[in-house]
Amino acid sequence: MKAGVLFSGGKDSCYAAYLAKKQGYELTCLISVFSKNKESYMFHTPSIEETKKQAKVMDIPLLIQKTKGEKEKELTDLEKVIKKAKAEYGLDTIVTGALYSVYQTSRIQKICDKLNLECFNPLWHKDELEYLEELIKENFKVMVVGVFAYPLNQSWLGRFIDYKFLEDVKELKEKYQIHPSGEGGEFETFILNCPLFKKSLNLKSYQDFSTGENSWRREITLN
User: Fold this and answer.
1) 30: enclosing H helix or E strand
2) Quick check: 83 pLDDT over 90?
3) What is the pLDDT of residues 126-179, one digit of tens each?
4) Looking at the predicted structure, is the pLDDT value of residue 44 above 70?
5) pLDDT > 70 in the chain, percent
6) CA–CA gap between residue 54 and residue 110 (Å, rounded)
7) Coil, helix or strand at residue 59
């Protein structure tokens, strides 16, 4: 089973790739969409350029598709790069990190059906707190690179998902109904190390940007 992974560099796509490999899929390529729209409905945007370095330490080819990020129109660009990946690598499966988003999953499924590909969503409806704990136990080094909901603020940027993080998001879930894994768009992440990497990536520099009320984004540069 040859799989292409829809890859953002964040925890969901990385962990989905990890689970797919454990279940016997051959990870033949990574597929990243670089959106000019920071508020894209479909695609992760913080530090997306650094996926090139992740692909290198994973030793997996990376296909990049640029898009203006216009709602629904961006799906044409996604279909284009999936079609290219299928032709170049003989894919029969697309792996996604979808957890609860019907919006994203239904649209990716439609593209896969059109291209006669299986769509595999290994995280689908996984308990969010159990999922975070699995990331910790499986030695995923996950950094927060964007926060987009009250009461999250700039102090959360650069935090790693560890047991203290787990306790803090449990509290936020109870008090503010925050999705503990950020599934509601509350935060976004970037992976610096995981079992799929040949070596760990190190942070060289970063710059924080305020993108609105209770909205911060960290652009990172890796060695």
Assistant:
1) strand 26-35
2) yes
3) 999 999 999 999 999 999 999 999 999 999 999 999 999 999 999 999 999 999
4) no
5) 96
6) 28
7) coil
pTM of this structure? 0.94
CATH 3.40.50.620 fits 2-120, yes or no: yes
Q: Hey, is 62 helix, strand or coil?
A: strand
Asked whether the beta carbons of 7 and 62 are under 8 A apart, the reply is yes
Three-class secondary structure of residue 7 per DSSP = coil
The one-letter amino acid at 58: M
Give CA–CA dist 167/16, Å, rounded.
23
What beta strand segments (E) does 61-113 contain?
62-67, 93-95
CA-CA distances (angstroms) from residue 183 to 34, 37, 154, 195, 203? 20, 19, 19, 23, 25
Residue whose pair of structure tokens reads 């479909």 in the numeric block: 42
Sorted by where each begins, the domain ranges of the chain are: 2-120, 128-222
- Name beta bridge partners: 205: 221
CATH 3.90.1860.10 fits 128-222, yes or no: no
Angstrom distance (rounded) from CA 86 to CA 76: 15
End-to-end CA distance of the chain: 33
